[in-house]
Each structure stands twice: as C-alpha cells, then as structure tokens.
Write a structure and sequence with these properties.
mainly alpha, 15 helices, two-stranded antiparallel sheet
C-alpha cells in the first residue's frame, strides 16, 4: 500500500508540473486512499498526500481568476489543515516545511480568500523562499522545490512578469523582469544547471521568458522548450508548450508539429488553446489547409460551449 501511495503521489506531482490540476487532485486522493489502507499507517501518515490535494485545489497561473476555483478554496483550506495535523506527528524538515508554508496560502471561505488574496499569495511565496534557502542543492528533490517556489513567486503577478525598463537601463529590448519574477528565473536557471531535464522547471521558465521581447534570451530557452515534449510525452499541455517560445524565435514548423501532436492526444486540458495556436502557426507559414482544419476543429469545440454559456449569437468565421 505504501508503494502505491508513493506512486500515486509521484503521478500527482507530474500532473502539477503539467498544469493538469484536476487529475492531480484525483492522484493525490488515490495516494491518500493507499496510505489509509496501510495497516501500519493509523492514523494516516502521508501528510504530503494531503498537501498535494490542497496544492492542486488552489490558485494557479492558468485559473487564478476562475469562479469555479473559488468554490474549491474551503476544501483546499481543510486539506491544508489536515496535512498540518499529520505533519505534527512526523519529523521531515522539508515535507513539514511545505505543509507549514501552505498554511499561509488559504483562508476558510472563498469570500475571505478573495479579500486577502494578494497578501496570502505573497506570504506563501515568502515562506517557500525561506524553505528553499535551507535546502541542500545536492538533494534529489532540490529542483522540485525550486519549481514550487518559482511557481509561488510567479503567482504573485500572474502573466505580468515584465515591466518597461527603467531610464538608463542597458536593456535593448525595452523590458525588465519584476523583482519576484527575476528571483524565480534565477532559481530556475540554477536548478536546470543541475537537472537540465526537469519538466516543471522548464515549463515555468518558458512562461517567464515568452513575453520578454529578448530574442537572445528566447534563443537560450529554445533548446529546453524543444525538450519538453520528450520529458512527459503523455501530457498534451507540455507538448504544446514549445509554441510559447518557438512563435517568437521563428521555428514555426517545429511548433506546428508539436501542436498537432498535442491536439490529438487524449486527456486534453486546454483543447481549444492547442487548436487556436495550431491554426495560428499554420497560417503564419502560409499553410491555409492546416490552419482552416484547426480552426474548424476549434469551432466544433467552441460553439457547444457558447450555447452552454447562453451566448446564442456567437459565430466563428
């Protein structure tokens, strides 16, 4: 049972890395069930299994402002509290540190969370930075903790990592990183210098750099972005992610192939995004049949959604 608990936990963490949060919740719950089935684990001993569910239920870069996310906040708070209760019974400095940091992330109700979201997000990121500072870089889980810390920092200003360069700046591309994003990028580079095939770190680095306007930086990231589809080949979002770098560096054919691959895989997370980007990258190459085919597939998926949202006049041409 403990073996299966560990396997389900690892699976859940990979889903976190791929931004497949719904399946991450399912995996972490399966890890808890396996832990509870262990006769020697009474009460349950896997605080990190509870931590994982609480993490996956919380805000993330792709759904920080969704109403349905707010509905999960009370359960996320409850699971974080349960994880804390288990942590009190175990002596695991890093694991308990993750659980302790998570206490800064939630409040009992969605209404309280919304009012205090900025403070909570910043407090959680600060706790994660403190935890990372005491971890040995030689630890096998160092890159995992870097990814979680960078993610926490990025969530303090989601999709807003760059700002106009200050007067007198030597920046040739007119933008500079916000301080939190700068710390996130530095730690990601450091982790990737040790573990260059860490999918979670690469995923986050692509997102930080994509809007930089710095072609030199984007070219440096490109080989890592192109590596992503090979690292977790069952994760459509990570296969698609090459697009976010290659659209800027001009490697359109490679982005076209990866997006076509991603859009055909099962267990889609963002199916319309994959098709939208596929249509764009085909169009910019002058491949009209590919672009139209992707657009028609996108229309097929989008129109039923528009009907559900009571937007009967919505038309896609």
């Amino acid at each position: 049972h403990r073996f299966f608990s560990t396997r389900y936990f690892d699976q859940g963490f990979r889903f976190l890395a791929a931004f497949d949060f719904r399946r991450a919740v399912i995996s972490f719950r399966a890890a808890q069930d396996a832990d509870a089935a262990d006769a020697s684990a009474s009460p349950p001993s896997c605080g990190l299994c509870l931590w994982g569910e609480a993490m996956a239920l919380g805000a993330n870069l792709n759904s920080f402002d969704e109403p349905r996310l707010m509905a999960s906040i009370p359960l996320a708070f409850q699971k974080a509290q349960e994880a804390q209760d288990v942590a009190k019974l175990r002596s695991d400095e890093i694991g308990n540190g993750l659980i302790h940091a998570l206490q800064k992330r939630y409040l009992p109700t969605a209404a309280e969370y919304i009012i205090n979201e900025s403070q909570l997000t910043n407090s959680y990121a600060l706790e994660m930075e403190k935890l990372l500072s005491i971890m040995n870089m030689a630890d096998a889980n160092y890159a995992n903790l870097v990814a979680l810390t960078a993610d926490a920092l990025m969530n303090t200003s989601p999709w807003d990592y760059w700002e106009p360069a200050a007067n007198g700046s030597s920046s040739s591309h007119g933008s500079q990183l916000r301080p939190t994003a700068d710390r996130a990028m530095r730690m990601l580079h450091e982790a990737l210098s040790i573990n260059p095939r860490h999918a979670f770190c690469i995923h986050l680095l692509v997102h930080i750099t994509e809007a930089s306007g710095n072609l030199t930086l984007l070219e440096e990231v490109r080989p890592l972005a192109e590596l992503l589809p090979q690292l977790i080949p069952g994760a459509p979002h990570l296969i698609h992610m090459t697009f976010h770098t290659l659209m800027h560096t001009g490697n359109f054919h490679r982005a076209d192939g990866d997006n076509a691959w991603a859009s055909k895989l099962p267990r889609q997370i963002y199916p319309m995004h994959n098709l939208d980007t596929l249509s764009w990258v085909c169009r910019i190459q002058g491949r009209s049949l590919c672009s139209l085919d992707a657009a028609k597939s996108l229309e097929h998926k989008a129109l039923p959604l528009a009907t559900c949202l009571n937007l009967p006049n919505m038309k896609i041409t």
